[in-house]
User: What shape does this take?
Amino acid sequence: MTQTQVAVSLYEQDYLLWIEDTVNKLRSRDIEGLDFDNLIEEIESLGRSDKRELENRLEELLEHILKRKYVNRPDCYRGWVESIIKQRNGLRKLLKNSPSLKPYFSQVFDEAYAEALKIVRNGYPQCEFPDTWLLSRDIEAMLNVDFWE
Assistant: This one.
């Protein structure tokens, strides 16, 4: 069995042990012993994970901004605003750690809004929500402006 076959087997049998083994090989510059196929796949998945996090946080942010702005339920305002703050904080951290995600924010905005719109329209069919986002899409505004005031 070659080192690559052992590494692939380790990847399939014990993921955490595979990670530790890979890190040790990288630290010792043991290029020959690396499981490149799975290493490449894992590194690619890190980028996808950040993109998914951005999409999920943006969708929830939009959902709660819509609720806070258009749903007349003062007893719910506090919870919605807390969620808005949490999503904004998470987005700030994500964009600070990966500034190259900023263009992606704009790319997925309309899709995130469409998903948020489905959720609020389903939950509050008596309320009118705009078909398109009528407020600023600027990242700084999305992270700082209380659109409902």
Q: What stands out?
A: The chain has a mean pLDDT of 92. The longest helix spans residues 36-70. The helical segments are 3-13, 15-27, 36-70, 74-97, 102-123, 139-144. Residues 96 and 102 are 10 Å apart (CA to CA).
